[in-house]
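Feature request, filed as a ticket because there's no other form

It would be nice if the structure record came with a short human-readable summary line next to the tokens. Right now we just get the raw output. Example of a typical job, pasted below so the devs can see what we mean:
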Amino acid sequence: MIERRGRDRAAEAAQPAAEAMAEDAMRRLAQAGPGQKRSLFTSDLTVNEFLLVREAGFRPLGLVLGSSVYHVGIQLGRWSKNQELTKLSQAMYHARELAMSRMAAEARALGADGIVGVRLDIEFKEFGSDIAEFIAVGTAVEADGADPGPSGTWLNTKGEPFTSDLSGQEFWTLVRAGYAPLGMVMGSCVYHVAHQRFAQALSTAGRNVEIEPFTQALYDARELAMTRMRAEAQALEAEGIVAVRLRQHSHSWGSHTTEFFAIGTAVRSLRDDHVIDTPTMVVSLDA
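Raw output as currently delivered:
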């Protein structure tokens, strides 16, 4: 009953995202959804990843994706001031969230318990310097013998399929050790780094010296991204975040405006007695 109520709540939340899904995608999912004969699945997992996901007690259902083509607007910052460009931060976060929510809607249509091996990419298009496609792709899976622990469900605390960008090997290791993914959590901060005035640049010419305003700007921007990622994990009631990556990219804004993007997988405990295998040494025979 816990799992069914969670799925019902997730289905209600999925309506806006499902409406934005392409008709072709809806037809494809209807043919592979619950109640249909499943003779074929699709997956972007490697052979090793596929087998380890099966060993962990999950069965792939199909490749799921979400896309959002988004116009990222313009926001000007003061030439000589370190500051977050909040409108751009919101745009980059919202576009990714749209792609992720549409991917999750496809997974719900398949009756999935989660999505593994998620990739979240950005591609700026040639038909506009400020137009980018945000793409989320992963493999929807259904629990097939895996024990979800006391909660009775693999759905996360919001009643939605979990998402994880861990590899198949990492996912197997996590579940085997008594942990479960709750969801991918992320934080974004687009930051304008102040330009040096001519006198400042001249004073440091030829010297080994820290540029403190630059250091402070980059530190602040990273901290904002990390804090927002932590807030998402706390909303999921996570025990922690694993495999965190902190990316930096200027996209098309120029050298003094850059995005710091933090992303990782929030996890919870499946049981108290975590069994962690002793690592073994592997020696490569490749030249």
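Something like this underneath would help us a lot:
The radius of gyration is 22 Å.
The longest helix spans residues 86-109.
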